[in-house]
TrEMBL record:
EC number: 3.1.1.5
UniProt keyword annotations, A-Z: Glycoprotein, Hydrolase, Lipid degradation, Lipid metabolism, Signal
Family as reported in the entry's similarity comment: Belongs to the lysophospholipase family.
Signal peptide: 1-20
Upper lineage: Eukaryota, Fungi, Dikarya, Ascomycota, Pezizomycotina
Name of the protein described by the UniProt record: Lysophospholipase
Gene3D superfamilies: Cytosolic phospholipase A2 catalytic domain
This protein's record includes keyword Hydrolase: yes
Organism: Pleomassaria siparia CBS 279.74
Domain PLA2c: 51-608
Length: 652
């Protein structure tokens, strides 16, 4: 039985007259062109039967990483050695021969640093500020490999995780041939993606890859989702389908936002297969049946190109991402069930991780230029979606039906409902990266959360540690959920502000023995005004390219500390953070230069929990002056409307 998040009959009849939409058109040009994610889905956006592989897919217990990930790591880890050596040689930690150290250990890569990067949620603020950090870490960015720069850290990393707005960044880059941020923004107004001046409510400009005009854009959102609803099989649609489709026009460089592009197709790309880029992971939370509030013990669900599932003890299982949509029962695919593929549309996965924004779809019908018939259809869709369900992504059939009945919250349900990965308060995607089986040494955690709120704080939308505190709280609050993971001690938000930990890079967990088990070192990089007031509202949906690029430049300067002008030893300290756990493992004496760094950047356990003064960060470097002009949208008005639409949720 299908749940009725569908078009009502009357809405449908209106639609049919306007829906001359090219539903799954993908010109062969883009088939050949985009090599990372690709249109592997058998029937565009609609999931469809495919031949099963020789070993029938099944659900596995999460006691280890997958065999596929293990095989992939055997390629990836060795491929990080040369970039790491190049970067560390350039950083040139005084009194330490990085080249010799790497050479001595490169026959055994598990002795060398295992690096992860995590991008928080926070809408386009998080996506663009994060993009600046990503470009600073990318050796392909012009000048990123000069003295004091950190280009090559991305090439040295094993994992790269994102949730919500951070997931848009990670998902978009991987969907588009692992493009560098620079190559995306260099195209300026001619770019096919990241044209954020045209908000998701307006749709893309006509031309280039996008062949739809605004009116057709709206109808295409509806008609393409309808192909999934109409497909044979138990699939339900939810607001996330529309949201993910809309998002794809901004993030996926393919006609109509690539209705046939799947997240799992990343695994088939030659470069990814060969371990030439880190593994992307997107994060969502499970909303258990009957639950309204997403608490800290909500099950965290990760999407990686191979698998979807959780290491949390509740679910403790993984399904093959490619075969989501298949009707697994008790962990197996019954003999009489076909394999289904195409469910893991890349926009749907990005939309799931950012489902907080689903309600934006409800604003579409207030837009100019939407034909009356489309408005009627939209209203029909929206009126059938109960408010309780407006923020969920519907994964029917539930791949984990009957799997681990005793602890899996959705074991008895035909559908699995997922929500925005930040809704449990953990707005930085740490969960996949602190799993002991992944053996991560250091996590560069980019926090673009919008925590600070007036009147306590007069300047809003800066981080105050809330996101990382949540993960710490989870790691100590509930030993069941902790399940062998370990996280460094993190102080309270007042301490973050009083000590300035939310205003400059801070290392947590420097002392590896002061924790309950193997714990990565966290390099916490909080969003702050380096060259631009990058505390834009989470729900600001329109950024002209000048503002977009200013956000990116702010992130770049945050990652490099103004190319070392704020602290000339910053690059050295990044090198020391990369190496710290490796030093422990190989019994290497920590160089004095690194001891100095740890003195400067490690949180030393000091706490000051008194109520802080209002937080008014000052510009750290010369402020970028944006040319004056009138923006396309009045963001404040729009933001206000959206804030009303999502009220009742925390706004990360
Ligand atoms: C995709 O990236 C590879 C390098 O990783 C490059 O050789 C190829 O030309 C790129 N393709 C496109 C269409 O940009
Ligand atoms: C590889 O390095 C790890 C960590 O230093 C060590 O535990 C392991 O014994 C080494 N393996 C070999 C074959 O040397
Ligand atoms: C889980 O529950 C289902 C339905 O209640 C049942 O059919 C199945 O056998 C159970 N699985 C296990 C492993 O007990
Ligand atoms: C930190 O942010 C949280 C989340 O918005 C907020 O509830 C809290 O009041 C803030 N605390 C301080 C000291 O800024
Ligand atoms: C700890 O987590 C388990 C599993 O989610 C849950 O059943 C239990 O209620 C939690 N305990 C507390 C005190 O929150
Ligand atoms: C994690 O949870 C699973 C499932 O409950 C359990 O089998 C496993 O032993 C736990 N691991 C640790 C280290 O506690
Ligand atoms: C690291 O932590 C351990 C355990 O708490 C403690 O004994 C040791 O003194 C600490 N080391 C430093 C350098 O603070
Ligand atoms: C740092 O370098 C980048 C790239 O070369 C440049 O865009 C940025 O303006 C520089 N920042 C400062 C503070 O000089
Ligand atoms: C060391 O561990 C203790 C106990 O968990 C904690 O209170 C303290 O803050 C930790 N110190 C540091 C520097 O992380
Ligand atoms: C703690 O923070 C408050 C508020 O910022 C400040 O006034 C006070 O001096 C701090 N206390 C110490 C011991 O540093
Ligand atoms: C771009 O947006 C910024 C911030 O809203 C604004 O100051 C600037 O004038 C805009 N530029 C153009 C060309 O619209
Ligand atoms: C999935 C789960 O165990 N959820 C529990 C989380 O904690 C709250 C109370 O703190 C319970 O009500 C939920 O059942």
């Amino acid at each position: 039985m299908k749940v009725s998040y569908l078009l009502t009959a009357s809405a449908l009849s209106c639609l049919t007259s306007t829906s001359a939409i090219p539903e799954t058109e993908v010109p062969s040009k883009s088939l050949a062109k985009w090599k990372r994610a690709s249109p592997e889905a058998p029937n565009g956006y609609a999931p469809a039967d495919v031949d099963c592989p020789s070993t029938r897919p099944s659900i596995r217990v999460a006691s280890d990483i997958s065999d596929q990930e293990k095989t992939w790591l055997q390629k990836r880890r060795p491929n990080t050695v040369e970039p790491m050596k190049t970067l560390l040689n350039r950083i040139a930690i005084a009194g330490f021969d990085a080249g010799a150290y790497i050479d001595n250990h490169k026959s055994n890569t598990s002795a060398l640093p295992n690096i992860a990067i995590a991008f928080s949620g926070g809408g386009y603020r998080a996506m663009t500020n994060g993009a600046g950090v990503l470009s600073a870490f990318d050796s392909r960015t012009p000048n990123a490999e000069t003295t004091g720069q950190l280009g090559g850290l991305l090439q040295s990393a094993t994992y790269i995780a994102g949730l919500s707005g951070g997931g848009w960044l990670v998902g978009s880059v991987y969907t588009n041939n692992f493009s560098s941020v620079q190559s995306i923004i260099d195209k300026n107004a001619d770019g096919d993606i990241w044209q954020l001046g045209r908000s998701i409510l307006q749709g893309p400009k006509e031309g280039g890859l996008q062949i739809l005009n605004t009116a057709d854009y709206y109808s295409s959102l509806i008609s393409i989702v309808k192909t999934k609803e109409d497909a044979p099989g138990p699939f339900n649609t939810s607001l996330t389908d529309y949201w993910g489709r809309a998002l794809s026009f901004q993030l996926v460089a393919a006609t109509d936002g690539g209705p046939g592009y799947t997240f799992s197709s990343i695994q088939d790309d030659d470069d990814f297969k060969n371990g030439n880029a880190p593994m992307p992971i997107l994060l969502a939370d499970e909303r258990a049946p009957g639950e309204k509030i997403i608490s800290l013990n909500a099950t965290n669900i990760e999407f990686n190109p191979f698998e979807t599932g959780s290491f949390d003890p509740t679910l403790y299982g993984f399904a093959p991402t490619k075969y989501l949509g298949s009707s697994f029962v008790n962990g197996q695919l019954p003999d009489n069930s076909k394999c289904v593929a195409g469910f893991d549309n890349v926009g749907f996965v990005m939309g799931t991780s950012s489902s907080l924004f689903n309600t934006i779809v409800t604003q579409l019908d207030a837009q100019d230029g939407v034909p009356a018939l489309v408005k009627t259809a939209l209203n029909g869709v929206l009126s059938t979606i109960s408010q309780d369900d407006d923020d969920i992504a519907d994964y029917t059939p539930n791949p984990f039906l009957g799997f681990r009945n005793d602890t899996n919250p959705s074991a008895k349900n035909d559908r699995l409902t997922l929500v925005d990965g930040g809704l449990d308060g953990q707005n930085i995607p740490f969960n996949p990266l602190i799993q002991p089986v992944r053996e991560v040494d250091v996590i560069f955690a980019i926090d673009s959360s919008g925590d600070t709120v007036p009147p306590t704080d007069s300047m809003q939308n800066w981080p105050n540690g809330t996101a990382i505190i949540a993960t710490y709280a989870r790691s100590v609050g509930n030993t069941t959920m902790q399940n062998g993971t370990s996280f460094p001690s993190i102080p309270d938000a007042n301490t973050f502000i009083n000590l300035g930990l939310n205003n400059r890079p801070t290392f947590f967990g420097c002392n590896a023995t002061n924790t309950t088990g193997p714990t990565p070192l966290i390099v916490y990089l909080p969003n702050a005004p380096y060259v631009y007031n990058s505390n834009t509202a989470t729900l600001q949906l329109s950024y002209n390219n000048t503002q977009r690029d200013a956000m990116i430049e702010n992130g770049y300067n945050m990652a490099t500390q103004g190319n070392g002008t704020i602290d000339s030893k910053w690059a050295t300290c990044v090198g020391c953070a990369m190496l710290s756990r490796s030093f422990d493992r190989t019994g290497t004496t920590v160089p004095d230069a690194c001891k100095d760094c740890f003195k400067s950047y490690c949180w030393d356990g000091t706490v000051n929990s008194t109520t802080p003064a209002p937080y008014f960060p000052t510009m750290k470097l010369t402020e970028l002056k944006l040319a004056s002009g009138v923006a396309h949208f009045a963001p404040s008005v729009l933001t206000f409307a959206l804030a009303a639409a999502v009220s009742g949720h925390f706004l990360f």
